[in-house]
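User: Before I run my own analysis I want an independent prediction to cross-check against. Here's the chain; please return only the structure tokens and, at the end, one sentence I can use as a sanity check.
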Amino acid sequence: MKFIELVLKNLLRNRRRTILTVLSIGVSLFIFSGLISLPAVANRILADTASSLRIATHNRAGLAYELPAAYQQRIAAIPHVVAVSPESWFGGIYHEVYDQFGNEAVDPDRAEEVWPDWGVTHEQWQQFRKLRTACLVGASTMKLFNLHVGQQIMLRGTYYRFPVTLTIVGELTGKAPRDFLIFRRDYLQEAAHRSPFIDIFWLRVDKTENVGAVIAAIDREFANSSAETQSESEASFVAGFIGGFRIFIKMAEILGVMVVITIAFVCANTAAMTMRERRSEIAIMRALGFRSGTVLWLLLGESLAISLMGGILGCSVGNLALRAFASAFPSLGGLPQMPPEVVAETLVAAALIGILSALIPARAAARQSIVGTLRAVP
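Assistant: Structure tokens:
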């Protein structure tokens, strides 16, 4: 206990240096924790939106190429397929160009079977099938634009050069994308006076273990046709979009490690200067009977305490920054707190900075010659 008091008193001797060192470590570990949280954000998106029973089937050439409407019946006839819904991207704008969110037209008769985990009640699905202009809106979009059930909204088309007037009959929650809107495909067909462009067929299978077989059966069914298909699980499909950012996520992780290494060198320089300034004090402690090992642990304890304070500060600010980031991008679904594994990694990094940066100068100071050091002091 007396050693802890001694460490605390030494930390408070030069408050300015201690505070600045804590802040520098805190800022670096804030950057580190934020950067290594990016993979957790990506995994959160996958976990919150993907279903193990849904499959996305699109043109092998890419999403910009159409699939024939006749494929719906052929896919529905494949064993283990429960329901199929074509999806037509509308790309509408609510007010201004920057007020964009995902909006798609789907089959109203099959939507409830394909997306039963989207938090829509059976009554709302019935209303969706009954009302020609019905739409269902994601929770974050509802909040962002202060929308409510029963309200009429108008989306200005981008790909389709006409607007659509829609009536909100329910809110998408559960595993639904939070900044999303779906409306009836037959309404879009009526407004366009032609069959809408089909970019994806969404289907749900009866059991998870049948997903692989159904994917193979679909792609085999349309092999060597004019519009060959590529089918994949919903998790794989969503991960494909995130995959484009994987290199940036990896670069962020590398940058985070570089930040930690840089601050470790800075802390090592600070520790060396501190030990040099206190060499006479350390020699007196040795002369009073303190063993070199005890002196070493006291010096390391001071450095460790400063680093851990910086680590806690960095994690706290990083947690607040993550919440602010999630609020700014509601489609992420929000991160209630920094992932525990990120907190653990940050605190371990803080401990390593504290111990490794001070180890060599503290060891040298603890083993210095008592007589020689006192003679060298003016």
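Sanity check: Strands lie at 54-59, 81-89, 102-106, 134-138, 152-155, 164-172, 180-184, 200-205, 229-233.
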